[in-house]
Amino acid sequence: MDAILRSKAEALIKEQITNTIMQDTPKNSIVMQLGKRLPNMTSQQTRVPVLSMLPMAYWVNGDTGYKQTSQQAWENVYIDAGELAVIVPIPEAVVNDASFDIVGEVIPRVQEEIGAKVDQAILFGINRPSNWQSDIFTMARQAGNNVTGGITYDTLLGTDGLFSKVEQAGYAVDGVIAAMTGRAAMRGIKDDAGRPIFVTDMQGATRYALDGAPMYFPENGSFDVSVAQMIAGNWGQLVYSIRQDIQTKILTEAVIQNPATKEIAYNLAQQDMIALRVTFRMGWALPNPATRLNPDRANVPFAYIEAGTPVTDYAATFTVQDSESTAVKGATVNVNGAILKTNESGKAVFHLRNGVYPYNVKASGYRTMTGEVEISGSTKDVTVKFPAKAE
Fold first, then answer.
1. NCBIfam families, alphabetically (predicted)?
2. Which element (helix H / strand E) includes 279?
């Protein structure tokens, strides 16, 4: 018998389109959530005075003993604004024919990407602006605050574990960041009776914490498991400032060039296109002021657990001398935020990944010396010679 089947009436059947796009919720920057936000920057650079030398007190010997003198000192740490930006071209016909607000859908995803880029640059130095100081990983590595052996109870809370490294710098851990895979590692840690340590209620929502410090597992893809498995620290010591909050602009008559070749990729007016431009500017710093437990500022309030294969770095040995080539002991060598004092031989050794690092060298009575050291797959020896002492 004859009938009008679906195959014959397919052209008349309207497809239903849901009014919701299935997608994950955009994730924000975890570093900006945990760090301390300073007032917005009013220029490209902000100066933060930091305590760099603590005063000393001395016992007086006897009733007529002489009281000794001491001093206190400060130095400037600078926050330089770096810029993140992107342009998203869209044909006007696509915008007009779409059933959804394309621009409205793009903006949250660009904001998520900005948050991820901020986290990667500050935590691991990935594509960081050249005027920013070294990342948290590099600073902690230089301070010797790296722990090997994977995620175990001892590497986390043991005598020389993750938390202990931060405490040796004079700070308490107030937050821990780990990759999503770290959750499974935490669940796998058991006590002597074989009971999971970090789960007390198997039926309720469990918030991961270590010794009272909350744990965070970034979902924006920013945590680099090839560099570290976990980072702990006192995040209140990390400061950041925004020069220009996220701004969006619709371009309609611009020309878009290929950044590499400078060739014209799109002519918006001629090709009936629009382009969404998003910009964001911010800077950050780890001032690391002198404390009684960290008077030389050589330590930092962050530590990390090494990746399965530790990152390769190279020794950069600084030798500081006076004008007569005599070793200068106690000179302060600052390599892009990492600080060491020279030893009896006038040497200070830094452990750096490949890259270019600005440095300055200071010593009482001498003019500050500055320069750059480039690490490219091998060790480096840098000799810094002070001119004659200032009168």
1. major_cap_HK97 (TIGR01554)
2. strand 273-285
Residue-wise burial string across 250-267, b where 16 or more C-beta atoms lie within 10 A, e elsewhere: ebeebebeeeeeeeeebe
Calculate mean pLDDT across residues 102-112. 87
Q: What are phi and psi of 79, to 5 degrees?
A: -105, 115
Q: What distance in Å separates the CA atoms of residue 223 and residue 298, rounded to the nearest whole number?
A: 25
- For 51-88, b/e burial (b = at least 16 CB within 10 A) is ebbeeeeeeeeeeeeeeeeeeeeebebebbbbebeeeb
pLDDT in tens, 17-62: 444 444 444 458 999 999 999 999 999 999 888 888 888 888 999 8
265 part of a folded domain: no
133 and 36 in a common domain: yes
The model's pLDDT over 206-256, given as tens digits with 9 standing for 90+, comes to: 577 888 899 999 988 899 999 999 999 999 999 999 998 888 999 998 999
* Structural domain boundaries enclosing 199: 30-54+74-242+282-306
Distances (CA, A) of 100 to 149, 181, 250: 50, 35, 17
| 103, 108, 112, 118: CA torsion to nearest 10 | 80
**Shared-domain flag, residues 288 and 352:** no
The answer to whether residues 335 and 194 belong to one domain is no
- Cα–Cα distance, 249 to 256 (Å, whole number): 14
- Find, among 247, 231, 248, the residue nearest to 282 by Cα: 247
Neighbours of 111 (CB within 10 A): 18
Beta bridge partners of 248: 278
